[in-house]
Design goal:
Number of domains: 1
Shape: globular
Radius of gyration: 21 Å
CATH class: Alpha Beta
Structural class: alpha/beta
Oligomer: single chain
Strand order of the largest sheet: 3-2-1-4-5-7-6
CATH topology: Rossmann fold
Helix content: 40-55%
Largest sheet: 7 strands, mixed
Order of helices and strands: HHEHEHHEEHEHHHEHHE
CATH architecture: 3-Layer(aba) Sandwich
């Protein structure tokens, strides 16, 4: 699988698009708001440039990127006012893989000024200059000592590639019956996914250490797992794998294709993230926290049924917006409606016995210097 070619969120502004189905990712901004604000405040105490250079790595095409940029601008201006300094200009870089739907996010940029004005209740235009930077953040993107602040949300759980060790020399798949590192994956598969994440995240930190000024900051939001490390039996990826397996048993997709397919995803624990930051050594870790959010609630009363159905429908649309392009590349576009209709039913069935939760790690780090 050529991850750089096929990985992207569902484009456009239609019903199934990422632009219309990224509410769950948007919750992370609310959870991380205090950490983001404090990180910006500390940045402004150490450097007060006339033009602040900011990058959103893995910006995708939905409204969340604009929301976080509005927050960053507001927190920065507030800090400058507190320090009695003239408000800065902003040079903002939106980065994602070349297949990302940059057009949708560019068309929405006029809303950034409106969001900032509504949030602050003032009619002042912010001097903000925005560029798109297509490319993988597992490679260099900017000149040395160029950026003041980097933000990345729900992107770093995506690996640069599916681990090569998942296929034996004879071509046999080691992770048959799974589409990611699940609780039933063999130990060597789990080790391969962890090894790939460790390599990718360390590379990411090393590259950013070259591009960020000394005392510059990063706030990273990473889709994570609980500290125990064992994947949850009701995880969103586990349910998707079960749905695909059902379709393979019915002959709707090729079983050989499913056995060979793996999502390039690894959800680390907070301990893993902390250790990799410390081991790489370029950044000082200031804050790291875990947050849990309900993807779908537990349906413990009959009167909850309508609300849970609505949540299941929204949840299925959310996951479809994230993985449809990569799944359609592998199994064909024609099965997507059926796949996610079945997936929605799987979510409902699980909700009858337990809530479905997702976890994130939020970290604030500072470039040493």
């Amino acid at each position: 699988m050529d991850v750089q070619r096929v990985l992207r969120m569902k484009e456009g502004t239609e019903k199934e698009s990422y632009a219309n189905n990224s509410q769950y990712q948007g919750k992370a901004l609310t959870m991380a708001n205090k950490i983001l604000e404090e990180s910006i405040q500390e940045l402004c105490r150490s450097t007060l440039p006339e033009c602040l250079k900011i990058a959103d790595l893995g910006c995708s095409s939905g409204p969340n990127s604009l929301a976080v940029l509005s927050k960053i601008i507001a927190f920065t201006n507030e800090s400058y006012r507190t320090l009695n300094r003239q408000l800065p200009e902003f040079k903002i870089f939106l980065n994602d893989l070349p297949g990302n739907d940059f057009n949708t996010i560019f068309r929405s940029l006029p809303n950034l000024q409106k969001m900032h004005q509504q949030e602050k209740g003032i009619d002042v235009e912010v001097p903000c200059f925005i560029s798109g930077i297509p490319g993988s953040f597992y490679g260099r993107l900017f000149p040395q000592k160029f950026l003041h602040f980097v933000y990345s949300s729900y992107s770093l759980h995506w690996l640069s590639q599916v681990p090569e060790e998942l296929v034996k020399e004879n071509g046999e798949s080691l992770n048959r019956g799974n589409i990611h590192m699940s609780k039933t994956s063999p130990l060597e598969v789990q080790k391969a996914f962890k090894k790939q994440f460790d390599w990718d995240f360390t590379l990411f930190l090393s590259l950013r250490s070259k591009e960020i000024i000394p005392k510059g900051r990063m706030v990273l939001i990473i889709m994570a797992t609980i500290e125990s490390g064992e994947p949850h039996p009701g995880s969103v990826w586990e349910l998707l794998g079960m749905t695909l397996k059902d379709m393979a048993l019915e002959g709707l997709i090729e079983e050989e294709k499913l056995d060979a397919f793996n999502l390039p995803i690894y959800n680390p624990s907070v301990g893993e993230v902390k250790k990799l930051i410390e081991d790489e050594g370029s950044f000082t870790l200031h804050q790291i926290e875990t947050f849990t959010t309900r993807f779908v609630d537990f349906m413990n009363k009959e009167e909850d049924a309508n609300e849970i159905r609505k949540q299941a429908h929204m949840g299925a649309l959310c996951i479809r917006a994230v993985v449809e392009p990569i799944l359609a590349n592998e199994f064909g576009q024609v099965i997507m409606d059926d796949l996610f209709s079945r997936y929605e039913k799987k979510i409902l069935n699980i909700a009858a016995t337990m809530a479905i939760e997702t976890h994130i790690v939020v970290t604030s780090i500072e470039r040493k210097g």
